[in-house]
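Input chain follows. Return structure tokens only.
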Amino acid sequence: MREIQANQISETVARLAIEANHFLGDDVVAALQQARATEESPAARDVLDQLLKNVEIAKQGTFPLCQDTGVAVIVVELGQEVHIVGGNLNDAIHAGVKKGYTDGYLRKSMVAQPFSDRKNTKDNTPAMIHTDVVPGDKLKITIMPKGGGCENMSALAMLTPSAGRKGVIDFIVNTIDKAGSNPCPPTIVGVGVGGSSDQAMWLAKKSLLRPLGSPNPDSENAALEKELLEKINNLGIGPMGLGGRTTSLAVHVLTTPCHIASMPVGVNVQCHSARYKEAVL
């Protein structure tokens, strides 16, 4: 059994929160550069130029990549041989989010009561925590700040099996078409198919953590991703909704078995500021 101090977790989460909001991953930057090189629309190229310039400005560490520094989505892979001491895991994560968003002067966007008073919690807590217990004695923490504009475009369909592959494609493409410019394209589209309603939505969000440009290990899912991306980019929405061929940089699909009478399809949309950072303790 390996012990990890709760305060070490808090410090790590705080650091990751600040880094994620100022440094865009190399995979996303490369995808934006590739889109700029192939985009046909002058207006779209201009937007992509501005997005790439924004990346360089944010690297200075003063201004975050986006003013919406998001809900702090925390993905934890907890080794079954790890013992947290000096506090509990969730409290340590919440403390880290509070410290990171306060010390980093990041916008606090969480309200305590969703449908009435809506008072800001003033420290961006609570975080949205997803924990998987895995083999080993390590603790992997990933933070994914998720902006409201793109998260609002999430959608769930409880399709029947008769809808088939075409039904899945139609739902996803129509979801992005209806979203238009709201999620600040170019986007990354996360898709989860199967499981239950809640699992499909989680798979859609989890798929966004796969680095851009890395192949889907499942050939059937890879083919679906390719077809979806082509259809989405043929919608003509383009960067920031100003037209062009780059509505999305990628589509990522995760699937899991489901009930014989069901075919849940979840869509989680990520804006061009696809921020995440991870650390292993």
